[in-house]
Design brief:
The protein is mainly α and 83 residues long. Helices cover 94% and strands 0% of the residues. It is rod-shaped and about 105 Å long.
Length: 83
């Protein structure tokens, strides 16, 4: 089997062309797959970082909402006392 492959690679173009096409197809598929996986990994980590940032913002907004609710309640109580 190995002798046929080696022979095909070094002798005629008619035998050599299909093997080279197959090898180029495999190489192209490999590079495409590696690029796709790298993009997916980068996307995953970007997404994880973005989620962490959004969680921090949510905590800040919830805290601000509590402060505003408390101030609003105090303002309403002051208004009712001065009526």
């Amino acid at each position: 089997m190995i002798a046929l492959i080696v022979g095909a690679l070094y002798y005629t173009n008619t035998i050599q062309t299909p093997f080279l096409s197959l090898l180029n197809g495999i190489r192209s598929h490999y590079h495409t797959s590696v690029a796709f996986l790298a993009q997916q990994v980068e996307r995953h980590f970007f997404q994880a970082t973005h989620i962490a940032e959004l969680e921090e913002k949510l905590k800040l907004y919830e805290n601000n909402h509590l402060v505003i609710s408390h101030l609003s309640s105090e303002l309403n109580n002051l208004f009712l006392e001065n009526l």
